[in-house]
Amino acid sequence: MSGLLSPRRSIPRPFYWGSAVLGFVVLLCVWQWAAGYYAGQGKQVLFPSPAAVGQVMQNMVRGAATGQEPAARDFQNFATDLRISFFRVTAAFALAALTAIPLGVMIGSYRIGEAFIQPVTEFIRYIPVPALIPLLIVIFGIEETSKIMLIYLGTFFQLMLMVSDEIRRVPYDLVQAVYTMGGTRREAVTEVLLPASWPGIVDALRLCNGWAWSWLIVAELVAANEGMGFRIVKYQRFLQTDKIFFYLVALGVIGLMLDLAFRLFSKIAFRWNVAARN
User: Fold this and answer.
1) pTM for the whole thing?
2) Domains by residue range for the chain, with CATH
3) Could you say which of 27, 43, 52, 179 is the most buried, measured as most Cβ atoms within 10 Å of its Cβ?
4) Do residues 151 and 216 make contact, with C-beta atoms less than 8 angstroms apart?
5) Residue 181 and residue 178: Cα distance in Å, rounded?
6) Of 194, 203, 191, which is closest to residue 167 (Cα–Cα)?
7) Cis ω for the linkage preceding 70 (within 30 of 0)
8) What is the pLDDT of residue 63?
């Protein structure tokens, strides 16, 4: 039992998944306690219980099956919001990955790249992204491009610097070994630095994907009429907090599934890294 509390030591899989389930149970208990506290003050509309949120989901499913209003309309809105939001996040995140990874590799591999790119990056990334909303509207209008660009800017700079840090973590002795065996500078990057950094880069992508979903809410405040963030704000105006919580739970489930997908991909694609950690 003492081994369960040893730093960085592996634990049996049943203990791991049991602890994960217990964490959600504790969260539900705290949620129920908070809902009961507000209900005791006659303010249950401000903080709905898990059962009330579950009822929202049940009504939506029933409405989708029977076509009964307004549940059917709520389900249709949710499906549309999910599709639109997923497109916005995916487009912005893909664009950020396609541009940030090459630049991050350049910064981490070459001192001249670091000197040329990183100071400018550090300057720009401290400008609050929401402060750029008026400029994005002026440049790109109120259509999809401005929303995608806001999410892109919220993830691009962090991802680029995280990739460069992963490149720098590769021991320089490995690069010197390439030169000793007659390898070129290009091979030092493509055959050593990149392969050794890919597990960390995928982990950086996993983290930045979460940030992209966080920026989604801000992006959908920019003259949107569809999307998860737009719908949450609309429900807030009418104090429909049970539906707000339903959308928040849906966002959490999406994030958890994407996180697990990234972890699974990393575990399958980089088995050698998993073995090294163990």
Assistant:
1) 0.86
2) 1-47 (no CATH), 48-277 (1.10.3720.10)
3) 52
4) yes
5) 5
6) 194
7) yes
8) 79
